[in-house]
Design brief:
This protein is an alpha/beta fold. It has helices at about 15-25, 65-75, 95-105, 130-145, 150, 160-180, 185-210, 215-230, 240-245; strands at about 15, 25-35, 40-45, 80-85, 90-95, 110-120.
């Protein structure tokens, strides 16, 4: 059956606990009132089985409740919903039916009281349930290599194993640097210097050569690192861009 009362989408609402478990909660930033775009409300604190990923109702026992809420909203009453914000995404704590009705009516935004929780791994607007294993691996990477916040907001790799490989590479680089008499005082310093002195120069070389121009910074470095490992190099060759060839493309995204 199609239409609003249609079947559940394969990728349902993202449970808040699962998202926090993957991203890593890092404290509450505050609470405020906001007009929240409905397209950024993707999850729930407790009602994952009642609505699909588009907030269509899939639990038919709640249809009467949904219609009652719709009647109230259609009369102009619009109490704010309660949301939790992680990065660019929002999760419903109270007001699932109001969000569902608002989406069915084609509203662009909904009024909300929002609690903003900071996370270790950043929740981009494109993040969906299928991406959480990779984000969990990213969080584990950031525990080992705590990059600055301005870098974290643009991190994305599809495969969890790539994050482990990246952490190993960063720590190996730091170990070699310490053997040269330049040890680090803590992991924050290690991460910042590694990004500035190792990662960004490689990215700049590739971009200047017209390679990886449509990739995020960390994707570009991951492609270069995979090429280096494939050839068994211990240092970056001068002709690195020439070795990338077809590898200079964005890795396959999860769907």
């Amino acid at each position: 059956m199609g239409g609003f009362w249609g079947r559940r989408a394969a990728d349902g609402l993202m449970p808040l606990d699962d998202a926090l478990g993957a991203l890593g909660g890092d404290g509450v930033l505050g609470r405020q009132f906001a007009e929240v775009p409905l397209s950024q409300i993707v999850g729930t604190s407790a009602r994952a089985g009642d609505f699909d990923a588009e907030f269509n109702l899939v639990n038919r026992h709640l249809r009467g409740r949904w219609q009652g809420v719709a009647s109230v909203l259609d009369r102009g009453a619009e109490p704010p919903v309660d949301l939790v914000r992680l990065g660019e995404l929002y999760f419903v704590v109270d007001g699932h039916h109001r969000v569902s009705v608002a989406r069915a009516r084609g509203w662009p935004v909904v009024p909300a009281q929002v609690v903003h929780i900071c996370t270790i791994a950043y929740a981009m607007g494109c993040l969906r349930l299928a991406h959480l294993p990779s984000k969990a691996a990213e969080r584990r990477f950031l525990d080992r290599v705590p990059l600055p916040n301005d870098v974290r907001a643009n991190l994305w790799l599809d495969r969890p194993a790539d994050w482990s490989r990246l952490a190993d590479a960063a720590e190996s680089w730091a170990f070699r640097r310490s053997l040269d008499g330049r040890p680090f005082t803590d992991r924050e310093e290690l991460a910042g210097v590694w990004w500035q002195e190792e990662v960004l120069p490689v990215i700049t070389r590739l971009r200047d050569a017209g390679k990886c121009v449509d990739l995020r910074d960390v994707e570009t470095y991951a492609v270069a690192l995979a090429t280096r490992d494939h050839h068994g190099w211990h240092a970056w060759p001068e002709d690195l861009p020439e070795h990338l060839g077809g590898k200079a493309k964005r890795p396959r995204r999860l769907t």
